[in-house]
Structures are given as structure tokens and as C-alpha cells.
Amino acid sequence: MIKNKKGFTWIVIAIGILGVILFSAKAVMVKLAYQYNVTAVNLLMFRMLFSLPFYVLVLLFTKKSEQKQGKKEYLWLVVFGIIGYYLASYFDFIGLQYIKASIERIILFIYPTIVVLLSRIFLKRPITKVQLMAILLTYFGVVVSFWDELGIEGSQFLLGATFIFLSALTYASYLTGSDWLIPKFGVTRFTSYAMIISCGAVVLHYLIFEHTTLLGYNANVYWLGLGMALLSTVIPSYLVSYCIKEIGASNFAILGGLGPISTIILASIFLGERLTMLQLGGTLLVIVGIIAISLNKSTYKKSGS
């Protein structure tokens, strides 16, 4: 831990845990909103539009980095903003139409393994034996978690799982590629820029492909959209960034392991979802694998989707 004061350390840990739980609540709110027949794109629009003013304000009141950024850096910022928050969120929202919120979090949680694999392919970073074993353990856990659900839901489940995996893949691609950009802009400004860009991409998607109105939904849809924006996007994005800054990404990985667990608990309370013992066992394997990878080597800078 970076700080010596135990009291401060526990406060930082509490902040990190709160951030993880708030991020995890997003899937539950999405599933609750789908009960009112809202489309995935419209729901994503509500999340982004309600989030946008806060990220703009943070950007305006955050000091610029001393490092100079050229056109190349801003161009890649646009690319990674579209990949990391627009595409990842879009795939996630589509996938949640077909699978349980608790299963969604298990699949999304594998993104550090994808970061390791992408870093090996594109950045030529070696994979250690511990990382390789952890990756195999993680994916074995995913297969175990899938087994019962695949037998029950069949093709619908596979379709949803594929979209959630694409969400994890695009988010991991964003983390891998944006690693060199974050120091140039700073974590806070980079996150704000990326979210503003993704909001623009969502609006563009809506104008081109979506032919439904944003008005006329049940009031709960708008409240859930606001909840996703504040409680599961804006607030946790900065809580998690602060926690990682204070205790490091590897230490935060241990707290991140609470993500699937908190989603399972929240989904059980608010959605009535239940996982089988086999699925719970698979979840535990995934959590152990991800923590082993993250403790072996820091593989990501930020968390969430």
C-alpha cells in the first residue's frame, strides 16, 4: 500500500469497494429497464446523455496536462473513445437482452485476460507461466458457469454471451491501446474526453439507425437511465480511478473480484435471479484466475464498462 496510515488505507479500500459495487449495479438497472420495452440504443442514449454534463464540467475544471498533445494523440483519443465506451457499452446492452445480469458480469470480468493476450500479440509483451495458468483457469471457470445456462437457454444464451464477450474484447482493446495516451492527458481528463466522444458516437448511431422516440416511456425508464449515469458511470469511474492511483492496479484487482459477487447479490435481490452451484463454482474460478493475473503483473489502468 502506498499510504502508511491504516485509517487512510481503509478509507481508500472502502472507496474502491463502493466503486466496484456501483459499477456492478449497472447490469441490474439495465435488466430492470428492459421490463418497460425500451430499446438498447435508447437506453444507452439515456445513460450517455445524463452522464455528459458531468464529464464536461469535470473536463472544464480539471487542469490540463503539461505534456503537449498533437493531432495524432487526439485522433487516437477519438478512436479509443469509440471503441472503449461506445462499442463496449453497446455490445453489453445488446447482450443483456438475452442473458442474466450475473452471467454478464462473469463474462465481462475476463477482460484482463484479453488485455494480456492482446499485449502479447500487438505489443510483444511476454506471458508468464503464472499468467498462462491463470488464463486457462479463468476460461475453464467461464465454461463451467456456462454449462447449465447453455442447456436451459440454448441459442439465445449463446447470442447474448457472444455480445458480452465482444464488449469485453472491445474494452480490453481500449485499455491495451490507450495505455500510452493516459499519461499524456491524465487519467481524469482522458476519461472525460473518452466519455464525451462516446456520447457523440451514441447520438450519431441513434440518428442513423434508430427510428424510435426517446419520449413516452414509463417514468421508471428515465429514473433508471439517470441512475445508470450517476451511480454506475460517473461516480464509480472517478472512485475507481482514485483507488487505483492510491493503492495500485494490482491491489485493486483484489477489490475488483467483488464485482461478480455484488452483481449476483443485487440480481438476486432485484431481479430474482438464481445461480446453480455449478455456476457459483465457475464464478469462483474466474475470480481466482483474474486476481492471479492482476497480482502477477499490472494489466490495466482502470476498471468498469
Automatic annotation (TrEMBL):
Family membership: Belongs to the EamA transporter family.
Compartments it resides in: Membrane
Domain (EamA) ranges: 12-146, 159-294
Classification via PANTHER family: EAMA DOMAIN-CONTAINING PROTEIN, INNER MEMBRANE TRANSPORTER
Keywords, in A-Z order: Membrane, Transmembrane, Transmembrane helix
Superkingdom of source: Bacteria
Membrane topology value: Multi-pass membrane protein
Protein name: DMT family transporter
SUPFAM superfamilies linked to this entry: Multidrug resistance efflux transporter EmrE
Pfam families: EamA
Gene3D superfamilies named in the record: 1.10.3730.20
Transmembrane domains' residue ranges: 7-28, 40-62, 74-99, 105-123, 130-147, 159-178, 190-209, 221-240, 252-271, 277-295
